[in-house]
Design brief:
The chain is α/β, with parallel strands linked by helices. The chain has a single domain, classed as 3-Layer(aba) Sandwich (Rossmann fold). Helices cover about 35% and strands about 20% of the residues. It has 3 helices and 3 strands, in the order βαβαβα. The chain has helices at about 15-25, 40-50, 55-60, and strands at about 5-10, 30-35, 55. Strands 1-2-3 form a 3-stranded parallel beta sheet. Helix 2 (about 40-50) links the parallel strand 2 and strand 3 (about 55). It is globular, with a radius of gyration of 11 Å. The protein starts with a strand and ends in a 10-residue tail after the last helix.
């Protein structure tokens, strides 16, 4: 396998802090994007956890490369 698995997480509510924190120690997973129905909430989590892209759920689903566009 080449490099880590790149993932985009949908849902940036309260429980997402546990998900983002829990994934950090694993080199096999790279969270490259996060999305939420409330885009500002996604931006806040992206900034908090150093995630390169924050966007709406529709934008993440439409983007086959969850990080290409950079932080929205």
């Amino acid at each position: 396998m080449e490099g880590p698995i790149r993932v985009g997480v949908i849902g940036c509510g309260t429980i997402s802090t546990a998900h983002f924190s829990g994934l950090k120690p694993y080199d096999i997973v790279d969270v490259v994007a996060c999305a939420d129905l409330v885009e500002d909430r996604a931006r806040e989590k992206a900034e908090e956890f150093g995630i390169p892209k924050a966007c709406t759920v529709d934008a993440l689903i439409a983007d086959p490369d969850g990080s290409r566009a950079g932080r929205a």
